[in-house]
Each structure stands twice: as C-alpha cells, then as structure tokens.
Write a structure and sequence with these properties.
Shape: elongated
Order of helices and strands: HHHHHHHHHHH
Number of strands: 0
Structural class: mainly alpha
Radius of gyration: 20 Å
Largest sheet: none
Strand content: under 5%
C-alpha cells in the first residue's frame, strides 16, 4: 500500500507513455487544482522529452504546448523555453526558435519576468539561430543575452557557450581576427581547470565535443 501511495505521488513523472498511463495522468490532472495543472503538464513533459523514443518526445512537445497555450502562467513561460530547447535538440530548429521567441514574449509580458526560466533564453535562441544560418538575428540575441550571461559568468558552461556563439557569429561574417579572439577565449574557459571560488569544482563544466574543439582551434589559428 505504501509503495502504491509513493507511486501515486509520482503520477506526473512518468518516463514512458502508453494509453493507460495517459488516461491515469489525465484523470489526476482533471482532479488537481487549476492553478497546479500547468506545473504538472510541464514536469511530465520534461521527463518525456528525455526519451529516446520519438513518439514519446512528441507527447512531451504536446504537453509543453498545453501548458503554454491553456494557462499563460509563469509555468507557461518555462514550458515555452523548455519546448524550444527540446525541439532544437530534436533537430526541429525552426520550431525550436519559434518556441524560444514565444518564451521571450511571455517574459516581456510577465510581471515577474524571467522567473522559472534559465534566464538564458536569448543565448539558447542565438545558438539555434546559428544552426539555422540566421547570423544577424543570432548576433542581436547575443547582445540581448549579455547582461544575464554576465550575471552567470561564474558558471563556466554558460560563459563558454556565449563565447562560442560569438566566435561563430564573427566567423560567419568573415571577421577572422575577431572570430579568433572569441575562439581563443572559449578554449581558455574550456581548458581552465583551476577553481576561482571555493564552490567552483561543483559548478557545471563546459561540454566540449571533439568537433567543437576542432572548430574552435581552426578559428583561433586563422586569426
């Protein structure tokens, strides 16, 4: 009985999805407080978005959209940001960019602004736009991201992403010397293993793929 109760409390944290799970979720959702429903939709979508199964991820995208369009709360803002990131990671770049733009619109409309988000929506949008080849809008989003990135500069992964995006913008514009400067700065952050604060060893380190490193080293050498 205790096991069933514990499982019941996790009704919005399923990692797999089928008709029975969906029916139980909808039943519990309908019985929950209206103010809590967007949170349950967003959290359930978050778990399903990590699935390796495309159909399960599609369910996650639909749940994110319901949280966004049916409620328009702080949870909707967070859901829009997560939807954009999830779609982009799924290779659906244009849709991901649109969802991230929706998140920015909701942030602008909200009396509590970025609450519930990563505070880095513009940076994520810039990364997606670079993959789409929209260099000018990516550059504008990086400029908009700068104040928040500065606030989170202690986090090496955030700082690295920002520097990499700048390097790629400058390279796309044919500015070899400036691209090299940003690329060298990104490599310095990636390779810096010396803690600068007592808690820094616990902070997320940059995720540097072999392809990214080769690209950055190429840009750095060209300058």
């Amino acid at each position: 009985m205790a096991l069933m109760a514990r499982t019941d409390r996790n009704w919005y944290r399923a990692r797999v999805w089928d008709d029975d799970i969906a029916a139980r979720f909808e039943e519990r959702l309908a019985r929950s407080r209206t103010t809590q429903r967007p949170k349950y939709l967003r959290i359930q979508a978050t778990y399903l978005a990590e699935s390796s199964d495309a159909r399960t991820r599609a369910v996650a995208f639909d749940l994110f959209r319901r949280a966004i369009h049916d409620y328009r709360t702080t949870e909707a803002t967070a859901a829009a940001e997560q939807l954009g990131d999830s779609l982009a990671r799924d290779g659906r770049l244009a849709e991901g960019a649109d969802a991230l733009r929706t998140a920015l619109s909701l942030i602008a409309e909200s009396p509590i602004g970025r609450a519930g988000t990563t505070h880095l929506t513009e940076l994520r949008l810039a990364e997606v736009l670079l993959e789409l080849g929209d260099v000018d809008e990516a550059a504008a989003q990086l400029d908009a991201a700068a104040p928040e990135v500065e606030l989170q500069k202690i986090y090496p992964d955030v700082h690295y992403r920002y520097l990499v995006a700048h390097a790629r913008v400058e390279a796309a514009r044919g500015r070899r010397a400036t691209a090299a400067m940003w690329a060298r700065a990104a490599l310095a952050v990636a390779d810096d293993a010396v803690p600068h604060a007592p808690l820094e060893p616990a902070l997320p380190r940059p995720a540097v793929t072999a392809t990214d490193r080769a690209d950055l080293e190429r840009l750095a050498a060209r300058g």
